[in-house]
Every structure is written in structure tokens, then in C-alpha cells.
């Protein structure tokens, strides 16, 4: 018998449950949207999906309200038999469509959220996300298909032929009901359970935080249980035709609403933190974004009002709890034997050198402390006014270097890299001494009792400068107009700004210490600091290079005042004049053209050309073309090492052109390279620019900077790891170098949005070029054994008594063998014959081809008089060595700097991309062949050669390529990772005035901005960038 009646009472009971739950779901979604727009200023894909799911749930509730007074029933044939029943069946169908889309959109939102917040390193989790996404799509398709097939003539209900509808029984279809209920339960349980094993193993999640996580995921499991509770009512509907499933309707409403709440709840933590900054029960404490929580300094309390406002603004930018807690924590917390630990490279261990004599046989047992010529510093290390114990110029002995047996030696690849596994050198005792550093300069070290804090952004090496600073902690009340943090370019920039006519006060911040101790001044130790001073080296390492047989390349970067100038190889070359004309063209600023740039170089240098008088036929720079009033001491040695002049004469005799001045704008030809050495030893950016500074220069050392302080898209200050802070009234200028500058930008939300979101870092500015476009000169050693009459370098290096005598002479009056050996490099910049006709060259962009064809643009470089390689090589009595280095200029391969995690203490991921471009492979092959032929095949040199030590088996293409895969490495000239360019260049990060695009108050001034890999050794380029930045800032602000 047909059933006839009114369902209004039961429908109202269902609505009394459904409407409040839907309103709760709408509220959570609205708060989520508000939170996201407030913090990120844009919505992600998962936000759009959850909004769609909520809209479908609301539509279903509206339909339920419309059907509250519907009549229902059907005749014996299973169809509506009265017009009043038609709307009831219409509403049932519409509700089911809305239900299917609501649960599907919510499911897709959760999975999209997982894919957004979990980093690529969690391979298994991300794969499961994709699998579940496919299953969710399949389940959506299956349920919708079953419903449409069962109700295939449903469209007749909206026409005048409603009596022909014969499918009312489709609403009691077992296939649809069971597939929907069981499918929802199984799929949702898998989705909500997916992150639990990863989150639960986080080592630093508090018990209260675990309880919070349980609450979140338990809500998801309630959704699954509610779906299963529908099954008894489905079975009842199968056996009782008059039962139309009112309880099922109510359970579905509960299921949808709770699913939306569970999907939206994580984003509400940021909103809670904004109003209740100390309440963050689900926030991982190791990533606390509010360094002011906990014990506060007295100085901080005195600035409560201003700091409180700043802290609250910071809270507005906090990410949602799951992005902060789960993905970033997985990267900063050890998870044993899972995807996170197995797929993510670990931070490089400290470099150690158990046997320095194997790498440098001349490494002596005892040396004296040398302070790079920087003296008379006033220390402020918690005791203002305290003077160092050593008098100006006084030297202190350091601990002897342990020299174990040969069995304790390194495992070194055949490349110019610091010996990687197994090199060990104890940190010199001198580094703990409070020796004099900078005359009349305030140096502030971290107080001994200062508690080191951990914040969400920390960079162990950040070199930056900023105009308009004052310190809010130690030392209290420091006034400031400019802040700079270390680095080769940064020290010069600090000097120029502090000496500007308006005398703005300057704060120089350095994460490392003052460079002092062994190997830092003597020309003899030109190469030594990079290998045997790990205390002054950040010790980076690249990822395995695909084109180099999977080798990782160790990447030395200076850790101390002066940056990498304390350990580079001291060559000082401008490059080609075409480099700067192309630079000007790429950035749209004529001040970068050669005619202006050469004048800038003059203002940087104090060029001593007098040393070349004894060998003027191979080196004779015109004094009028060089500067003599600058701060960087540059020159040519007063005497050439034995073998240098004979080699150049032999090469010139064989028809090669000589270059009497490599810094004329035309580097082509052979000659003697100038260097940043003088009678007093190595010139660094520290002793060139921090000696005798004005009283308006203050220095912080040991101040590893945690983060840039942001107000929206404006940088207003920095915070150091030990709690020291500085606020900027004008600008912050990063001078951290090609590796660390992009790292600090990325950690602070400036860079490619997809990379930042993968680590849960709020996106402040989407700049796709940050960390990209990295280029570097390629190099390899080529070494032969020669007769001892060719040169006497090895005779000194292999004789310990001679080394000790030479050290004593140097320490006495800066004379003797230490002032001569390794004091000069000779070399050449050359074109590669036939390279322009090769298919690899012709495949380059036309503008690149045109640039490489210019007369003064070299394809390669060679440098002679280098060190003995490989490390540990011993030669028989009566033998010496001739060591050449072959360089590829203008490489076309590009690499990248990316984050390893959101933990700022982790080193960045460095992918150099060496030899991945076909042109580089071809050109490097031809470079090795050319260097070998022009030097070792030269008749006058070849007569002294006994045998090869390091090089290819032959000069065939195959043997050279095989050798290069095992031998090619870096000379540490990386540049371009925060490239300067015009605004219409999608990869440009800074403009011609060093301003970061889209960020107010932030500039970058180091070689990371270079749009051209200059044809030189990039020390001079770093100085140039610092000088150009100083000129522009002084002019812009009228300093």
C-alpha cells in the first residue's frame, strides 16, 4: 500500500541538529579564510577547495529547510502519484548531489593541504597523498555514477511528465548507500590517519601538544564513525519501504559539518595566537616564532610598549599551527630510519685535519698569533671599557699542531676542495684570546652569561648592512644610522658609510670572530687558510654533481671579519671591460659601464706597481691607470719566484702574447697576476677597512643573526641568536655572499613561493629568482714533476728545518722565504681555438655568442705556480713540481641555493650544476688540452719535465672527459644567486640600485647580484659591488 503523510515534525528535528552544525562549519571556514588573508594575503588551493565544500554543505542545508514541509510517499509502482510529492523527490536528489560534492571537496582540501605543507623530502607521505587523492577521485566518480545510473530518468521530475518517472526506488539503492557510507569511512580514516606516525615521532613535542594533536585527529575519526553509523539505517530502509531515512539525513549532516571543522581547525591556531600570544598549545616549541617568550632582559622590559607592538605584529604573520609544527619540525628533528632522515642530506660535519703536513708539508709545529694587522680594539664583552691584554703589535704563541702518522690522512677527491672526510685540525688556542683587533672601534662580543635563544629564523652567517639602526639590547641605547654584518663587500661598505660626510653611526655585525692565528698573513700561506683553518670556514658542501661522477664539492666560505677575503687566493683582477658593458646593458644602468667602473676600481685600490721594475718586460702596469689612495693594498711582488720568469719567457718565445697589465680592461695574454699582498702580508677587507675607523663605527662579533624583522613587506631590523636586536630607520643591506644571502632571504619568506610553502615559511614576497641562476668558474689542476733546477719551491716545503727558519724570519721582520714563495701567480686569459665553430657554441643564445666573440672576452684562464696536487704527493730527491690550474670562463651551466629545512641552523642545499651544459663540457675539454699544450708541451719547459703527476691519460677527447669528471671542481667564485636585473626580467631579484624587488627597506650588496660571471677572480668584484652600493646610498640619502 502506498504510504501518505507529512514529514514536517521529523524534518524539523533533523534541521534542529543540522543547522547549528553547518553554522559551526561555516564559522570555522570563515575564520580560516580571515586568518589566511590576514597572514598570507592570499588563499591557497586547499583554502579554495574547503570554501567550495562549505558552500555545498550550506546548499544541502538550504535544500533541507526547503523540504521541511514536503509530502512524501509513492504508489505501488514506485513513483510519485500526486503533484505534492514531486518536490520531495527533487529535494532528495538535490541533497544527495550536494552531499557528494561537499564531502569530496573537503577530502580534496585536506589532501591538498598535506601536499602543500609536507616537504618533498617526505617521499612516502607525499606518495600516499597522491594515492589517496586518486582514491578520493575514484570514490567521487563511483558514487556519483551509481546515483545517476539509478536515477537515470530523474530529469522528468522537473517536467510536465513527472508521472512517467519510475525510479523512486533509486533512493533506496543499496549500491549507492553502502558505497557512499563505507567508502567515506574507509577513505576518511586513511586521510586523517596519514600524518599521525610522522607527527607522533617528533622528539620535542610536549605532552600537552600531543593531546592537542589527538583532539584534532580524533575529530576526523568521529567523521568516519558517523559514516559507519548509517549502515543500520540503510539496512532498515532496504527492508521497510515506508522508511525514508530521516536518521541517515541527520548523520550525513553531522558527517559533513565535522569533516569541514576538522579540515579547517589547524588554521585557527594563528588566529588564537594573534589575540592570545602566549597561548599556542599546538605550536612546536622548537620553532617558536616569538623569541620574547620566557625570561626577558631588563633592557627589553624598558621598551615594553614598542616591543609589544612589534611582537603583536609578528604574531599576525605566524603561519597556521600545522605548517609550523609538522613539516618544519620533521626537518629539524631526528626521525630514525624514515623518509625524513634517509632522503634529506644532513648538515656537513666540521672539517678537521689530523695531518696538515700531508696537505701542506710546510705546516709548522709552532707559529705565532697574527691578527691580520688589525690592532688596538676596544672590547665590550660584558665589561665595557676593558682593554685587551696584548699590546699593539704584540704576538702570542699558540698551541702546537698535532702531526700524526700518514695513516691518519684524509680521503680527498682529485679536485681543489678542502679535504672532506678525515681532515682534522684542532681549533687554534689563539681564537679564545682577547687580542687587539681594531683601533678606536667598539667591538661587542656576546656576553658570557647571555643565554643563546632559538627562534624561527636563524642564519649562522648573515652579512648585511642597513641604514638607520639602533640596538634594543646589548649595548643598551646604541644609536645608529647604518648596520652592516661582515663580508668582503660589507666591510668596505661599513667603512664608506661611516666615513661619509654626515658621519652616520654604523653598526657592523659578524657571526664569526676576528681572524687571528696561523696561516693568515704570509704569502707562503696563500692557500693554507681555506684548508687548515676550519674555525674560519663555514665548510659548506654541494650535493652530488651529476656530471662529475656524483662527487660532492666542498665549498669554503670565510667565517670572520672580512668574509672570504681572509682565505681566498688573493688574486686581484678586474676582468674584461666587456663584462661591465654587458652588466650595464642587462640591468639598464650606464654607471656599470667600463668607463665608469674603471674609475670605481681606482677609488678602491692602493696599487703598488714598483715591484715590477725588475721584470718590466713581462709586467708593467701604468701607474696613471690605477688608484693609489684606496684602502685595498694591491701590488706585484718585488721579486719573482724561481721558474716564473723562465716560464713566461719560454711561452713568449713560442709566439704567445704578453699582457703587461691585466687590469687594463683587456685581460688577454700571458703575464704576472697582481694580488692583495703587500710588505706586511695579506690584505683582507677587515684590515683594509676596519683599521683606524672613526668613533661612529661599532662592531658586534659572535652575532649570528636569527632573522630579519618585518612589518608587512618592509624590513625594519634584525635579531641575533643571542638576543641582540637592532632596528632600522631606513634600510637593511645583505652582504652575506652567494650562498648565505639567498638563504636568509628564503628563511624570511622572500623567494619562490612553492619552495617556501614546502617548509611552512610564510611568503612575504614571491621572488622566483632567489637562489637560482648560480654560476661559478670551473677549474682543475694539471701537475707535472720537474727537475729541481726548474724551481726551488718543493725544496723548501719538504724541509722542516727550512720551514722553521723561514717562519722565524717572517715573524721577525716580514722577510725571508715566506715572503717569496707562493707570493706570485703567473698565467693567462685565452681564446679557445675552434670553439666558435662547434655545435655547442652555436647552440647558445645569439647574445651570448656575440658576447663571447668580443676580442677582450676570454674563453679560459690558466694560472701557474700553484700548489702541489693531489695532497700528500711526495717527490724524490732532485725533483720539484710545476702546477697549473685550468679555468673555464663564462660557464653556461647554472646551479641553485635552496633550503634544507626551515631550521636556520641547517646548511643550505648547494647544487652547483657543474658541467651540465653541453658547452661547458666541450669548453672545459678544450681548456685542459690548451693549457697542457701551451705549457707542458712548450719545448723550453718540456725539457725539465720528468713525468705527469696529475692530468688526463692522453689528450684525446675521451681521456680528457674521463679526467674532468673526476677532477673538475671549484675555485669558489660562485655568483648570481640573487641576480640584479630589469624589472621585466622574471628572475631578477634586485634592481640596479641593489633594492630587493617588492620589499621596502632591503638591499643586497655582494656578488650574489652579479648578472655576469666576470672574467676574473671575484674578490675584486666583491669590492666593486660594495663600493657601487656605497656610492648609490651616499648619493640617495645625501650622507
From TrEMBL:
Instruction: List each copy of the Glucose-methanol-choline oxidoreductase N-terminal domain by range.
Output: 558-581
Residues annotated as signal peptide = none
Where in this protein does the record put region Disordered? 284-318
- One MF term from GO for this chain? flavin adenine dinucleotide binding
Q: Which domain of life is it from?
A: Eukaryota
Q: Which InterPro entries match?
A: FAD/NAD-bd_sf (IPR036188), GMC_OxRdtase (IPR012132), GMC_OxRdtase_N (IPR000172), GMC_OxRtase_C (IPR007867), Rhodopsin_dom_fungi (IPR049326)
Alphabetic keyword roster = FAD, Flavoprotein, Membrane, Transmembrane, Transmembrane helix
Key word Flavoprotein present: yes
The UniProt transmembrane annotation reads: 12-31, 97-116, 128-149, 178-199, 211-231, 243-265
What the record says about family reads:
Belongs to the GMC oxidoreductase family.
Q: What is this protein called?
A: FAD/NAD(P)-binding domain-containing protein
Amino acid at each position: 500500500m502506498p504510504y501518505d503523510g507529512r514529514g514536517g515534525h521529523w524534518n524539523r528535528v533533523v534541521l534542529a541538529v543540522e543547522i547549528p552544525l553547518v553554522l559551526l562549519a561555516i564559522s570555522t571556514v570563515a575564520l580560516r579564510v580571515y586568518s589566511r588573508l590576514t597572514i598570507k594575503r592570499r588563499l591557497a588551493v586547499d583554502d579554495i577547495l574547503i570554501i567550495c565544500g562549505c558552500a555545498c554543505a550550506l546548499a544541502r542545508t538550504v535544500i533541507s529547510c526547503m523540504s521541511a514541509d514536503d509530502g512524501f510517499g509513492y504508489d505501488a509502482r514506485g513513483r510519485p502519484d500526486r503533484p505534492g510529492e514531486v518536490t520531495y523527490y527533487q529535494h532528495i536528489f538535490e541533497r544527495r548531489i550536494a552531499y557528494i560534492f561537499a564531502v569530496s571537496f573537503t577530502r580534496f582540501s585536506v589532501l591538498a593541504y598535506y601536499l602543500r605543507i609536507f616537504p618533498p623530502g617526505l617521499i612516502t607521505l607525499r606518495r600516499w597523498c597522491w594515492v589517496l587523492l586518486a582514491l578520493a577521485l575514484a570514490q567521487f566518480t563511483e558514487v556519483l555514477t551509481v546515483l545517476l545510473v539509478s536515477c537515470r530518468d530523474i530529469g522528468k521530475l522537473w517536467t510536465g511528465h513527472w508521472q512517467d518517472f519510475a525510479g523512486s526506488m533509486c533512493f533506496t539503492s543499496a549500491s549507492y548507500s553502502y558505497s557512499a557510507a563505507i567508502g567515506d569511512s574507509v577513505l576518511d580514516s586513511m586521510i586523517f590517519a596519514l600524518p599521525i606516525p610522522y607527527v607522533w615521532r617528533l622528539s620535542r613535542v610536549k605532552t600537552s601538544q600531543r593531546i592537542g594533536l589527538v583532539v584534532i585527529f580524533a575529530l576526523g575519526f568521529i567523521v568516519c564513525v558517523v559514516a559507519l553509523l548509517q549502515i543500520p539505517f540503510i539496512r532498515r530502509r532496504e527492508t521497510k519501504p515506508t522508511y525514508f531515512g530521516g536518521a541517515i539525513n541527520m548523520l550525513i549532516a553531522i558527517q559533513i559539518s565535522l569533516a569541514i571543522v576538522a579540515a579547517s581547525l589547524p588554521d585557527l591556531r594563528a588566529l588564537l595566537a594573534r589575540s592570545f600570544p602566549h597561548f599556542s598549545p599546538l605550536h612546536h616549541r622548537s620553532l617558536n616564532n616569538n623569541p620574547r617568550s620566557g625570561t626577558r632582559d631588563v633592557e627589553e622590559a624598558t621598551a615594553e610598549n614598542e616591543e609589544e607592538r612589534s611582537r603583536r605584529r609578528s604574531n599576525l604573520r605566524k603561519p597556521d599551527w600545522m605548517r609550523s609544527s609538522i613539516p618544519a619540525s620533521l626537518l629539524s628533528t631526528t626521525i630514525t630510519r624514515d623518509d625524513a632522515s634517509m632522503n634529506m642530506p644532513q648538515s656537513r660535519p666540521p672539517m678537521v685535519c689530523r695531518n696538515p703536513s700531508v696537505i701542506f708539508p710546510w705546516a709548522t709545529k709552532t707559529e705565532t698569533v697574527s691578527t691580520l694587522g688589525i690592532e688596538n680594539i676596544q672590547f665590550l664583552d660584558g665589561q665595557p671599557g676593558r682593554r685587551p691584554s696584548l699590546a699593539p703589535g704584540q704576538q702570542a704563541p699558540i698551541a702546537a699542531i698535532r702531526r700524526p702518522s700518514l695513516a691518519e690522512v684524509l680521503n680527498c677527491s682529485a679536485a681543489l676542495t678542502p679535504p672532506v672526510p678525515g681532515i682534522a685540525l684542532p681549533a687554534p688556542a689563539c681564537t679564545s684570546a682577547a687580542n687587539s683587533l681594531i683601533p678606536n672601534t667598539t667591538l661587542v662580543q656576546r656576553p658570557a652569561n647571555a643565554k643563546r635563544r632559538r627562534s624561527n629564523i636563524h642564519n649562522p652567517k648573515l652579512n648585511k648592512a642597513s641604514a638607520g639602526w639602533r640596538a634594543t639590547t646589548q649595548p643598551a641605547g646604541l644609536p645608529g644610522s647604518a648596520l652592516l654584518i661582515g663580508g668582503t663587500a660589507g666591510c668596505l661598505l661599513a667603512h664608506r658609510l661611516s666615513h661619509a660626510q654626515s658621519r652616520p653611526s654604523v653598526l657592523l655585525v659578524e657571526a664569526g670572530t676576528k681572524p687571528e692565528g696561523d696561516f693568515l698573513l704570509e704569502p707562503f700561506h696563500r692557500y693554507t687558510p681555506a684548508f687548515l683553518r676550519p674555525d674560519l670556514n663555514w665548510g659548506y658542501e654541494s650535493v652530488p654533481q651529476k656530471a662529475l661522477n656524483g662527487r660532492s664539492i666542498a665549498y669554503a666560505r670565510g667565517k670572520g671579519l672580512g668574509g672570504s677575503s681572509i682565505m681566498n687566493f688573493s688574486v686581484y683582477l678586474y676582468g674584461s671591460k666587456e663584462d661591465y658593458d654587458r652588466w650595464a646593458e642587462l640591468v639598464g644602468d650606464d654607471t656599470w659601464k667600463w668607463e665608469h667602473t674603471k674609475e670605481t676600481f681606482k677609488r678602491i685600490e692602493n696599487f703598488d706597481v714598483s715591484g715590477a721594475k725588475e721584470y718590466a718586460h713581462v709586467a708593467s702596469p701604468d701607474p696613471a691607470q690605477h688608484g693609489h689612495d684606496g684602502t685595498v693594498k694591491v701590488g706585484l711582488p718585488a721579486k719573482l719566484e724561481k721558474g716564473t720568469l723562465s716560464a713566461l719567457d719560454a711561452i713568449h718565445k713560442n709566439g704567445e702574447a704578453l699582457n703587461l697589465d691585466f687590469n687594463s680592461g683587456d685581460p688577454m695574454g700571458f703575464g704576472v697576476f697582481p694580488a692583495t699582498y703587500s710588505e706586511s702580508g695579506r690584505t683582507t677587507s677587515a684590515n683594509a677597512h676596519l683599521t683606524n675607523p672613526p668613533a661612529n663605527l661599532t662592531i658586534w662579533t659572535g652575532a649570528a643573526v636569527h632573522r630579519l624583522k618585518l612589518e608587512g613587506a618592509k624590513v625594519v631590523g634584525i635579531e641575533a641568536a643571542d638576543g641582540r636586536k637592532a632596528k632600522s630607520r631606513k634600510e637593511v643591506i645583505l652582504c652575506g655572499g652567494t650562498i648565505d644571502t639567498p638563504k636568509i632571504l628564503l628563511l624570511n619568506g622572500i623567494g619562490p613561493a612553492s619552495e617556501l610553502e614546502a617548509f611552512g615559511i610564510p611568503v612575504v614576497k614571491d621572488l622566483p629568482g632567489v637562489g637560482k641562476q648560480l654560476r661559478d668558474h670551473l677549474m682543475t689542476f694539471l701537475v707535472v714533476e720537474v727537475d729541481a733546477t726548474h724551481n726551488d719551491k718543493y725544496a723548501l716545503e719538504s724541509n722542516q728545518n727550512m720551514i722553521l727558519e723561514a717562519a722565524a724570519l717572517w715573524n721577525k721582520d716580514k722577510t725571508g722565504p715566506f715572503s717569496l714563495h707562493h707570493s706570485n701567480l703567473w698565467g693567462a686569459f685565452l681564446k679557445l681555438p675552434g670553439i666558435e665553430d662547434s655545435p655547442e657554441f652555436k647552440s647558445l643564445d645569439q647574445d651570448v655568442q656575440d658576447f663571447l666573440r668580443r676580442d677582450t672576452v676570454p674563453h679560459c684562464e690558466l694560472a701557474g705556480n700553484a700548489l702541489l696536487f693531489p695532497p700528500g704527493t711526495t717527490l724524490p730527491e732532485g725533483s720539484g713540481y710545476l702546477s697549473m690550474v685550468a679555468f673555464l670562463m663564462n660557464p653556461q651551466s647554472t646551479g641553485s641555493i635552496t633550503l634544507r629545512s626551515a631550521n636556520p641552523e641547517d646548511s643550505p642545499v648547494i647544487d652547483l650544476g657543474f658541467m651540465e651544459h653541453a658547452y661547458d663540457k666541450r669548453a672545459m675539454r678544450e681548456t685542459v688540452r690548451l693549457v697542457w699544450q701551451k705549457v707542458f708541451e712548450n719545448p723550453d719547459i718540456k725539457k725539465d719535465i720528468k713525468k705527469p703527476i696529475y692530468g688526463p691519460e692522453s689528450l684525446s677527447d675521451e681521456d680528457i672527459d674521463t679526467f674532468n669528471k673526476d677532477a673538475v671542481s671549484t675555485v669558489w667564485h660562485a655568483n648570481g644567486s640573487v641576480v640584479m636585473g630589469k624589472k621585466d626580467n622574471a628572475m631578477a631579484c634586485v634592481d640596479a640600485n641593489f633594492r630587493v624587488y617588492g620589499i621596502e627597506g632591503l638591499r643586497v650588496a655582494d656578488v650574489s647580484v652579479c648578472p655576469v660571471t666576470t672574467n676574473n677572480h671575484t674578490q675584486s668584484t666583491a669590492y666593486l659591488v660594495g663600493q657601487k652600493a656605497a656610492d648609490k646610498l651616499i648619493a640617495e640619502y645625501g650622507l
